[in-house]
């Protein structure tokens, strides 16, 4: 009977997908490890260059009675987005016009809604807002009694794959923890983190929660990050945000753990009226491999 006890060289591989204790033949790594490296490198490149499947994501949001809003950065295509990070932080004029049109609509006659998304009836029309269709069929404002008005945004970032795989499960875990009912949910393409700042300012959000695809690694082409910013406006720095990274379900930070960290930051931000280095991380949940 073969001995299945892990050796001292394979034990690290059981705890992390990082390249540790690779096999070798003379000075070279094994063929299997070399091929796995090439595959992981190709998957990381594909994650950067593959565009977001907007139709699939929009369908999932509508199934949750959420109103997707497609907005785009000033980057005209993926190549420009990668070469010019500044364009990914700038909102396209068409999207600015769409947001201005939405914010000036009279919503005084719209009914108040309850806080549970599952209890909200679907609107007669589920058309997403776009530069050519700037008026949503249903606009749900936060209740005035809550301590802050959060705005959730989804962005492709450097890995649209991460958003497609993990955004909806994370929303399922997060929305029940939020203190306010709303439906409008911007979906941003060719976006950098700072693109949420002008959108949050235009929509008068107290705080933004940006779900964005992170830069792919050789062992994580689909890692999702969350950036939380109090009082969003252009010019905010990374030191004024809180980041939750490596959200990947069972192979990274779990959706439930990420959702509770989001709720923690929201609670602390509403109490202190700030985000960033001033806020302390919640106590980590330690798990042995």
Describe the structure in your own words.
This protein is of the alpha/beta class and about 290 residues long. It has one domain: Rossmann fold. It is about 35% helix and about 15% strand. It contains 9 helices and 8 strands. The strands form 2 sheets. It has a 6-stranded mixed sheet, with helices on both faces. It has a two-stranded antiparallel ribbon with strand order 1-2. Strand 1 and strand 2 form a beta hairpin. The two termini are about 25 Å apart.
In what order do the strands lie side by side in the largest sheet?
Answer: 3-5-4-6-7-8
Tally of domains: 1
State the low-pLDDT regions, or none.
106-146
The helix-and-strand class reads alpha/beta
Q: How much β-strand is present in the residues?
A: 5-15%
* Straight-line distance between termini: 26 Å
Question: Average pLDDT value?
Answer: 79
- The CATH topology assignment is Rossmann fold
From the structure provided, what is the oligomeric state, counting identical versus distinct chains? single chain
Please give the number of β-strands.
8
> Helicity level, as a percent range?
25-40%
**CATH C-level category:** Alpha Beta
Please provide the ordered H/E string of secondary-structure elements: HEEHHEHHHEHEHEEEH
